[in-house]
């Protein structure tokens, strides 16, 4: 963990077609924007212009702004089980062309044509009940404006469907946890077929789902919420909303924190190795630390799932205590109210649970370590190539990639085995979490790093059992915040922007319909290097206090303004206890006093 900077390349491939196409039977109304944007639904940065155009008297000019990709789309009636070719002539910066709601594999193509008009082209086949599709164009974050003209959808025009589905019945809200409710209803009927349901909470914007149930997450504890549901068909006809149903979340738990203080300091103890910072006995860990993560448990092989924890040998760590004294010191810390966890992974401990056998081995071996030393729980510090997302794995609520699915199942099994007092923490890098605002797995073109934001489905699945998430705000490249700007590690603004994303939630890949919901304030701490020797991105005591004060009290903020004030922000994590001692205890003593002084 945190011994080298994480690096990743996000490579985009460009493909354009320049051949002159055969004449198409175009079924797109207003395909050349001769009637302005009539019939098109576009972002604020889009307009019809008279020049330059490829043909006719107008073209589309659209400018990406911040997280707005300058999207323009429209619905077109089609026939079920039919083949279509979609094309458009484009110019300028990055341009994406695609279709959604096809009933099959939704197509997308893109290019970076520059100053010459260039044709983008893709194909698709509609599903057996598809009566309409939405075609669209959009640009990309921070890139130049684009132009589009002569949009063509070549294929059979569909019958006009004007009949809305029936109203869903039997809406109910149950399955309450402190942060979620399960909404269910009976299926609606339609003359062609229901393609989606839209669930509105407390009269807000609806969330689209394909089944007859929806889990509403990111809710407040002990709070009543109202839900209503409507059904929609492929042509965009929607029923009236159902009568509202109410549900109440349960009272807040502490995710197994077992009585940790309101503000916590979390530190990693080099228990299995030395790296120049000096060995620290368990009995010598200063009282300022509330959570002590033993670094590290590592697998016998990358895919075995069999985790082993070996104490640092005396040849590497002079003065290391015996196993008996180590265990006794753990019990003494626990008697003082401290929590001691086994941390799995780190920079060198790649863990890929690719099979059910590896999943079960992980559960059994981690449980054995916890039981041997009487530990309070587990810290997940997977780095490198431990996690990734397969192509097409885009549903945050229902991931399909084996290494992600098996990790979630293993963590739930450990929680069930060790009970309500089980403490679960996670320490991912920003690349695996906040980068999801821009990239999620390999992306729509398969060109991005498949590890991008791959922690998100794990965090999301475990949010009701998660004690603390302390993302490593260091060893990080620039990350885009909710303000659409890139932020760089080492100063208060970086910590404010990264933490705000966790507590406000954020759209994945900029898609407002696909959001990572906010975590509870008591679940989030800021991850930092304890000294300049501990990792890239060291932040001075003054800058850390400025960041924490901005987030927790709303005062002293810099350029970045968080979306809310978070008085329940839980605390700070440091790599590491050893490096803190090496630096004269500046981190633990300064920040403990600051946190204790907050009201």
Automatic annotation (TrEMBL):
EC number of the protein: 3.2.1.14
Domain GH18: 263-598
Boundaries of every Fibronectin type-III domain copy: 167-252
PROSITE patterns in UniProt: FN3, GH18_1, GH18_2
Keywords from the named record: Carbohydrate metabolism, Glycosidase, Hydrolase, Polysaccharide degradation, Signal
Keyword Lyase set for record: no
Enzyme class name: hydrolase
Secretion signal, residue range per the UniProt entry: 1-24
SUPFAM superfamilies: (Trans)glycosidases (SSF51445), Fibronectin type III (SSF49265), Galactose-binding domain-like (SSF49785)
Keyword Transport listed: no
GO terms for biological process, alphabetical: polysaccharide catabolic process
Pfam families found in the cross-reference section: CBM_4_9, fn3, Glyco_hydro_18
CDD domains: FN3 (cd00063), GH18_chitinase_D-like (cd02871)
InterPro entries from the UniProt entry: CenC_carb-bd, Chitinase_II/V-like_cat, FN3_dom, FN3_sf, Galactose-bd-like_sf, GH, Glyco_hydro18_cat, Glyco_hydro_18_chit_AS
Family, similarity comment: Belongs to the glycosyl hydrolase 18 family. Chitinase class II subfamily.
PANTHER family given in the database record: ENDOCHITINASE
UniProt name for this protein: chitinase
Organism: Nonomuraea diastatica
């Amino acid at each position: 963990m945190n011994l080298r900077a994480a690096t990743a390349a996000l490579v985009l491939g460009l493909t354009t077609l320049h051949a002159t196409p055969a004449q198409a039977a175009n079924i797109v109304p207003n395909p050349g924007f001769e009637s302005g944007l009539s019939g098109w639904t576009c972002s604020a940065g889009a307009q019809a212009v008279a020049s330059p155009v490829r043909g006719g008297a107008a073209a589309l000019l659209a400018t990406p702004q911040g997280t707005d990709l300058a999207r323009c789309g429209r619905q077109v009636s089609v026939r079920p089980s039919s083949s279509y070719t979609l094309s458009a002539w484009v110019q300028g910066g990055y341009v994406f062309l695609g279709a959604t709601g096809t009933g099959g594999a939704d197509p997308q193509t893109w290019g970076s044509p520059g100053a010459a008009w260039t044709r983008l082209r893709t194909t698709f086949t509609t599903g057996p009940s598809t009566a309409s599709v939405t075609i669209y164009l959009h640009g990309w974050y921070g890139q130049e404006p684009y132009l589009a003209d002569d949009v063509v959808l070549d294929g059979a025009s569909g019958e006009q469907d004007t009949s809305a589905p029936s109203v869903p019945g039997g809406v109910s809200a149950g399955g309450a946890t402190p942060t979620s409710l399960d909404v269910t209803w009976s299926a609606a009927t339609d003359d062609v077929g229901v393609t989606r349901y839209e669930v509105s909470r407390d009269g807000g914007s609806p969330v689209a789902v394909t089944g007859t149930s929806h889990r509403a997450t990111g809710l407040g504890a002990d709070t009543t919420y109202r839900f209503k549901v409507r059904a929609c068909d492929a042509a965009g006809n929607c029923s009236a909303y159902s009568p509202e149903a109410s549900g109440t979340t349960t009272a807040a738990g502490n995710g197994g924190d077992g009585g940790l203080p309101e503000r916590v300091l979390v530190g990693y103890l080099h228990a299995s190795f030395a790296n120049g910072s000096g060995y620290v006995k368990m009995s010598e860990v200063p009282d300022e630390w509330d959570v002590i993560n033993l670094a590290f448990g590592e697998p016998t092989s990358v895919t075995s799932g069999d985790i082993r924890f070996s104490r640092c040998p005396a040849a590497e760590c002079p003065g290391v205590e015996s196993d008996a004294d180590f265990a006794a010191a753990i019990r003494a810390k626990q008697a003082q109210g401290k929590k001691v966890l086994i941390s799995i992974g780190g920079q060198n401990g790649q863990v890929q649970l690719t099979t059910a056998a590896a999943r079960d081995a992980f559960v059994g071996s981690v449980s054995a370590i916890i039981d041997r030393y009487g530990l309070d729980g587990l810290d997940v510090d997977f780095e490198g190539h431990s996690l990734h997302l397969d192509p097409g794995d885009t549903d945050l609520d229902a991931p399909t990639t084996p290494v992600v699915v098996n990790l979630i199942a293993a963590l739930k099994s450990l929680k069930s085995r060790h009970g309500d007092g089980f403490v679960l923490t996670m320490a991912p890098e920003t690349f695996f979490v906040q980068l999801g605002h821009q990239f999620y797995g390999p992306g729509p073109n398969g060109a991005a790093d498949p590890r991008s934001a791959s922690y998100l489905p794990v965090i999301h699945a475990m949010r009701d059992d998660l004690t603390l998430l302390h993302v490593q705000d260091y060893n990080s490249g620039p990350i885009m915040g909710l303000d659409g700007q890139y932020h760089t590690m080492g100063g208060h603004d970086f910590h404010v922007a990264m933490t705000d994303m966790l507590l406000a939630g954020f759209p994945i890949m900029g898609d407002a319909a696909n959001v990572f919901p906010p975590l509870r304030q008591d679940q989030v701490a800021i991850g930092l290097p304890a000294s300049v020797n501990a990792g890239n991105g060291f932040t001075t005591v003054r800058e850390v206090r400025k960041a924490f004060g901005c987030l927790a009290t709303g005062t002293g903020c810099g350029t970045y303004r968080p979306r809310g004030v978070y008085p329940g922000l839980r605390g700070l994590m440091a790599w590491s206890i050893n490096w803190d001692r090496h630096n004269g205890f500046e981190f633990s003593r300064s920040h403990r006093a600051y946190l204790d002084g907050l009201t």
